[in-house]
Amino acid sequence: MMRLPSFEFLAPDSLGEAVKAKARYGSDAMYVSGGTDLYPKMKRRQFTPKVLISLNRLNGLRQLANGDGLTMGAGLTLAEVARHPEIRRRYPALAHAAGLVSSPPLRNVGTIGGNLCVDTRCTYYDQTYQWRKALGFCLKKDGDTCWVALSSSRCLAVSSSDCAPVAMALDAHARLVGPEGERTVPVSALYANDGKEYLLKSPDEILVAIHLPNRDHWRTAYWKMRRRGSIDFPILGVAVALCMDADGRCTGARIVLGAVASQPVAADEAAAMMIGEKITPELIREAAQETFRLAKHLDNTDMALSYRKKMSRAYVAGALFEAAGLSISLVSASG
Predict the structure, then answer these.
(1) From CA 335, how far away is CA 333, in angstroms rounded?
(2) How far, in Å, CA of 157 to CA of 281, rounded?
(3) Contact 286/315 with Cβ under 8 angstroms?
(4) DSSP letters along 40-67, please?
(5) Are both 74 and 178 inside the same structural domain?
């Protein structure tokens, strides 16, 4: 049985107290909310904080406010996001993605903010301490070799968030609070294509809220590939958002791939192909083919690399068919 190491647990009552506590303990401390990813990794000694600063008493992180769009507190649980009627009506792909994360018990604890910031994953990293030690550790933790590609100078662990691709497709923004004050950035600006240093926000900053702009005239979809129908992290995620006029002509498009790199990947060229055009099955297949080259799968997650690569085209096509309200043909989409 793997056990948690000893640590000090703090439960501040305000954002200011939480930020001050992090500044006091520095790199020895980490923030925790749901902890569904953090605690197992502490057991495996992938994270080794001496102090945990809980965000669970910060009621402001659990609010949801209407306005010019919708602002969600980062402390809302994934279950709350998945079943909230306003989110389901206005941002159905986000509700769907949140409802696909892990299992019901973990969705009742894990948060939307935690899923946006969830650690990258890799076959050589997500193992017990003894397993990693026997290998000689890896570039992401305690070692100096990326076992996915021995010549790589950077970690190639894969982005594993379901909600991040959807948030990017919706052009969501993140509000961060830290020792230097408050700032708001596009969700896309949170990520770097580096499996080790995958977040561009400071470890001292707290993700407080996610703002979703008005997308009432957009249609969205999220498709997730994994071996099992629940529990598993994505080995491919496809988020799409389409805006169409009364004649079925596309006036706006976003396509974002998850779990194909160390960060979610926006397929901007494929999306641009659709703007100004009437959405047809042929156009969807052309756009799906354009995304095929972006899906640079590596041999560090589940299933065969070649199969995941091929299915990226099929899943993009399927998500676009769904968002456009057209009949789905995966056989022809997969080529």
Answers:
(1) 5
(2) 34
(3) no
(4) HHHHTTSS--SEEEE-TT-GGGG-EEEE
(5) yes
Residue 324 lies in a domain: yes
Whether residue 285 sits in one domain with residue 247? yes
Do residues 240 and 250 lie in contact, with contact meaning Cβ atoms separated by under 8 Å? no
Q: What are the residues whose beta carbons fall under 8 Å from the beta carbon of 45, sequence distance 6 or more?
A: 5, 129
Residues 46-72: b if buried by 16+ CB within 10 A, e if exposed: bbebebbbbbbebeebbeeeeeebbbb
Sequence letter at residue 298: L
Q: Are 159 and 143 in contact (CB under 8 A)?
A: no
First to last CA, the chain: 46
The answer to whether residue 71 sits within a structural domain is: yes
Same domain, 8 and 107: no
Q: Which of 169, 324, 329 is nearest to 258 (CA)?
A: 169
Residues 66 and 187 in one domain: yes
Instruction: Identify whether residues 181 and 74 lie together within a single domain.
Output: yes
29-32: strand order across its sheet: 8-10, 51-54, 29-32
Q: Tell me the residue range of the domain where 47 lies.
A: 1-57
Please answer whether residues 232 and 240 qualify as being in contact, where contact means their C-beta atoms are separated by less than 8 angstroms. Answer: no
Q: For residue 142, what are the β-bridge partners?
A: 138
* Residue 327, pLDDT score: 83
Q: Is the same domain home to 207 and 92?
A: yes
123 exposure class (CB count in 10 Å sphere: 0-12, 13-18, 19+): middle
Helix (H, G, I), strand (E, B) or coil at 3: coil
Residues 208 and 252 in one domain: no
Is residue 270 helix, strand or coil?
helix
Rounded Cα distance between 191 and 262, Å, is 8
Query: How is residue 146 written in tokens?
Result: 């990326």
Averages of pLDDT over each 10 residues, the chain, 335 residues:
94 97 98 97 97 96 94 98 97 98 97 98 96 97 96 95 98 97 98 97 97 96 95 96 94 97 96 96 96 83 89 96 84 42
